[in-house]
TrEMBL record:
First-listed, main subcellular location of the protein, grouped into a coarse class: membrane
Pfam families associated with the record: ABC_membrane (PF00664), ABC_tran (PF00005)
Record protein name field: ABC transporter ATP-binding protein
Keywords of this entry: ATP-binding, Membrane, Nucleotide-binding, Transmembrane, Transmembrane helix
Keyword Cell inner membrane annotated: no
Species name: Halalkalibacter alkalisediminis
Compartments, record wording: Cell membrane
Domain of life: Bacteria
Transmembrane regions: 20-43, 55-75, 128-152, 158-176, 239-263, 275-299
Molecular function in Gene Ontology: ATP binding
Amino acid sequence: MDTFKRLKQFYWPFKSYFIWSLLALLFVTGMTVLYPVILQFTIDHAVRAENYDLIPYLVIAIIGVMSIKGLAVYIHQYFGDLFGITTVHRLRDSLYKKLQFLPFRYYDNAKTGDLMSRLTGDVETFRFFLSFGCAQVVNFILLVGFSIAVMFYYSVPLTLLTMAMLPFLAIVVAKFDKRVHPGFRGIRKSLARLNTKVQENVSGMHTVKALSQEDQEIFRFAKSNEDYRQKHLDISKIWANYFPLMELIGNLSAVVLLAYGGYLTIQGSLQPGELVAFFSLIWYIIGPIMNLGFIINMFSQSKASGERLLEVLDEDERKDLVTSNAKQPNLVGEVVFKDVSLTYGEKNLPALKGISFEATRGKTIGLVGATGSGKSSIIQLITRYYERSSGQILIDGRSIDDYSLKDLRSQIGVVLQETFLFSSTIRDNLAYGKPDARMDDIIAAAKRADAHEFIVTLPKGYDTVLGERGLGLSGGQKQRIAIARAIIMDPKILILDDATSAVDMQTEVKIQKAFREVMKGRTTFIIAHRISSVKLADEILVLEDGELSERGTHTELINSNGIYRRIYDIQNQDQEYVLQQA
Ligand SMILES: Nc1ncnc2c1ncn2[C@@H]1O[C@H](COP(=O)(O)OP(=O)(O)OP(=O)(O)O)[C@@H](O)[C@H]1O
């Protein structure tokens, strides 16, 4: 129950829908129990007493009962659905909101397919229980309660015998629940793995094809698919065992009661009509008890889903992103690192060790170093995607912690190596960081980023809808859109993760030109794989295993004959000669 208690904030505000649904259910159950009573009256007081004048009134009574029941079913169903739908609408919103504020650290290990199945499948299962399952539980209590009350009215000993049989049914139900709950959790996990597999396969289709891994992929999918099938089969087996047993116990109970009821009728302490009514009422009890399996099934599924939803909702979020009281800072864009270190996780080695530098207003800092040397990690700290382990980072002389994440990031423009574009129009993608940007500003930014020229040649220009992740555009084109996107934000600090290593020379020249355009008047950090990208930087920081090994201008570093010089030589001079020297 703890799961439902903890999710209370989502359904409790809509309790009035649930109450209406329950009130209607009360009528439905009441009317249902009235049927056998009318039947008994018809047999004992109309037919056996040859009081045939009563028949038309009894017909009217049955029509009346049916009509009220029909209306009550409608209200019960409608408000039940409204309760479930409205609750999960709020739940989905909260989950999505949560995903926006979870730190990068969470996404390091999160799997898209798994998250997708939590936000869709698990939420739906939960809704189904609220809309339908919850009412079933109440229906069970009402129907069994009402029926037993009427049964007591007809015959106390027969009712007591009926109640003596119920524990047998209850034991089977309890055993069933114990086995079925872990099974459902397994199914939901397995489905999440299946979704992850499909999602990763579609996203990584280029890699799959490039490395000819289609057969391997089919094999891996088949394994996940088989696991899902097996988990379903396991549950089916539990069901298959459960149903005949319930059916058998139910029927045996009915036979015993019928025998005893028949004896009481022959004795004359029970009227034949009462026996018929009693027999109908017994099924109103046995039916729901057998159905309890379904209800428990639903309850187990929704509990398993609720647990998975809580796992997301319970994650620690970056609260400072939403609760900023600080005024929007008007930054100059000065960045200072003082003896900064970063270790990503307890098990990891330090990614940065004692880094210190000053990036004054409007200056360009180049970051150079081998792969894994810590270039991106410096950027992760400036944007506070990750938090430093020690040291101080100052922005305009104030600790970076004094700024809210939202304010800080609104002043930092990032153009990543891999540009992510949404499957929406080019205009929307350009204005992503500033949705209220005017069209004139968007076009001006696109011109400065050298993107306007190719955008207008597209079939619908700025209204061209892009495929997922910007499919349909070349790497260089995507990059230029990303640059325009950064220009529109008008940031004081600019971070350019040099993507030019992946494009041809002509595109590189164009992108470099666009970079230079956007860098004017902003403090810029360039992560460079080619020396040509940082040649003009005011200071170049050379990283080696997370430490600053050299620093200076291009000319200074060339003259110092260190690692920078070596990279430069490899890239610009007689490569073969250098490799021979190695
Ligand atoms: N999110 C992360 N979690 C754990 N370790 C990480 C994470 N990101 C980077 N690292 C580790 O930190 C070290 C520095 O990585 P970083 O990405 O800063 O290097 P880089 O110089 O930018 O490399 P590249 O040129 O390949 O992009 C590496 O050893 C890397 O494995």
